[in-house]
Amino acid sequence: MNSRFLILAEGAFSPLRSKTANACIRYTPEQVVAIIDSGRAGDTAQKVLGFGGDIPVVASLTEGLTRKPNALLIGIAPPGGQLPASWRALILEAIDNHLEIWSGLHTILSDDPEFAARAKSRGITIHDLRKPPADLDIARGRVRELDGRATVILTVGTDCNIGKMTTQLQLRDAMRERRMRVSFAATGQTGILVEGWGISVDAVIGDFIAGAAERLTLQAAKDADIVLVEGQGSIIHPSYSGVTYGLLHGSLPHAMVMCAQPSRTAINNHPWVKIPPLAEFIDMQERAAAPLRAAPVIAVALNTYDLTDAEARAAIERVERETDLPATDPVRFDPAPIVDAIDVFHRKRFAVTAGSTALGAGVR
Amino acid sequence: MNSRFLILAEGAFSPLRSKTANACIRYTPEQVVAIIDSGRAGDTAQKVLGFGGDIPVVASLTEGLTRKPNALLIGIAPPGGQLPASWRALILEAIDNHLEIWSGLHTILSDDPEFAARAKSRGITIHDLRKPPADLDIARGRVRELDGRATVILTVGTDCNIGKMTTQLQLRDAMRERRMRVSFAATGQTGILVEGWGISVDAVIGDFIAGAAERLTLQAAKDADIVLVEGQGSIIHPSYSGVTYGLLHGSLPHAMVMCAQPSRTAINNHPWVKIPPLAEFIDMQERAAAPLRAAPVIAVALNTYDLTDAEARAAIERVERETDLPATDPVRFDPAPIVDAIDVFHRKRFAVTAGSTALGAGVR
Fold first, then answer.
1. By CA distance, what is A233's nearest residue in B?
2. What are the tens digits of pLDDT across the range B48-75?
3. pTM to 2 decimals?
4. What pLDDT does residue B364 have?
5. Which of A246, A272, A292 is the closest to B206 by Cβ?
6. Cα separation, A143 vs A285, whole angstroms
7. A240 contact residues in B (CB cutoff 8 A)
8. Is B198 in contact with B191 (CB distance < 8 Å)?
9. What fold, for A5-128?
10. What CATH number does the domain located at B142-350 have?
């Protein structure tokens, strides 16, 4: 049974704040029947986000139920990811109406006695996207086993919520069109929702973050030449840098794609942490990876959603000049410059001629 | 009731492998009645570790019980911190003999149905040193609130198990002798055991590592001018760097003390990760902190346990020359050079003249 999601985004449905909702609407719009946000009721997803067509925004669960959903998706993640108390009644009501619950909160809803009991009595399932596997291990540098047969690409960024997941999904789709053997390793609740599997590495306990990244990367490499690992956070983020580093050192990328937003000059919600100029940040990022594996940043993905077309093109040109790297906004424009950079990097590693899919063994 | 620990270190009692056992013996020897390690039975702590006097090593729980313990301390932490299956019967037998259980494993023993039921039936408590508080939050840069009244010093290191906790405890004791107002913020199970409180940051889920460090640092600063934060891991550790960075960016130290072992050239168990020359590593460490707060490394603590006295002195001189920083082995020799460096740094921050304990408010 396919999901028909009613998405809870109360008070937060917008281009930057409702991250999980937005990705679900962008990549699987056919599975979304409506979005709950009383402040935007009557609007459409297209009007609020610029994509998503005529999926309606509704004022309440009751109104949303008229659209015949079979699941409630918690589409927003408050800082810290805890469950706001005001949502409890709404979730219970959704369960009473036989909606499955999909949640990316840190609060594991299926472990909550009241939710668990109610769900059991109604015969529905609670899906906690952030619940990590029980059998995680520490990292052991095992991604190096892939050196002879695959290329691991990690998106990294100057800040959270800047395009690390979206860039990988755009690259994945573009690479599939070119018939490249590509896979996407989802590391956050939204990516897991879109891809159907993954581990939310920010919900893993500290000692196992890198181990979770290692396991994911190896698993994603099973049938792929190119593994696109979803990055998290930023090496300078005051709250989440631990997750960023664990993911970097566990996934051991061969190369990185830098995600940035030209208009962002400091970490969101932390104006005291300034974002250095991009060329300097790229140098910091490469230094962060180097002690374990020298991995260059080979392209830049710019998030230009708040710029005009002309401003966006100017920003891309300026970044290309300043960093000497190919750059684009892979959502607004063609992701080809980044796909090309990865393709060339991968072919050089394996000395494969264009058009061939055979891989040399152990070359690097 | 004071604890009288019987320490489980089966198969691992040695200077480098039984970290929790060793710290307990070094800092609270009066609380240790015996150590279980059948391979070293008949030896003393002094013979195995070089300290600990005549605390005996025994072959079994049964033999240890003759020493009248009232608690069993799990004194070793296997990689990953999980409970080896073979210890289950031994722990149950200890509970049956009315020993309290103290554990620093990632496996939370008090959450294990069999252990919990048995402990309840025998009326004893299971103390899980690594169990994090339930109400953790993300970091918000709040350590900056201390800027006007305290100095935060973090120990950092080239690798795990190299002296970050021990250095802080040696500094704490030396500072107390000088009547400095100092506190120790324990971030690992062993430090928590020694200090009586703290949070094991490596057992906290990724998004809350920095938040846990922030909370600990603020709490430790309540009645102290100098806060000594126990470091964890290494910025280049392939398994644990996430914890290291979260702790660094959450505790926001004003200065750092670098811990290193002259004879160690690669990360333990990861020979593929080489440790750069110390001056280069110090530069990397300062760059890792700088985007959030410029914090210099102001001294070096060398772990010379595997060198002769002459070799140790030569290593210290060489490091002082190469790094232009004061260095010592704070266990083997007087920790004064590091204490002096911290004292001078603290006084400069607050422009306090020697001999005064008054602090200027809001300086910097």
1. B207
2. 999 999 999 999 999 999 999 999 999 8
3. 0.90
4. 36
5. A246
6. 19
7. 138, 206-207, 210
8. yes
9. Rossmann fold (3.40.50)
10. 3.40.50.300
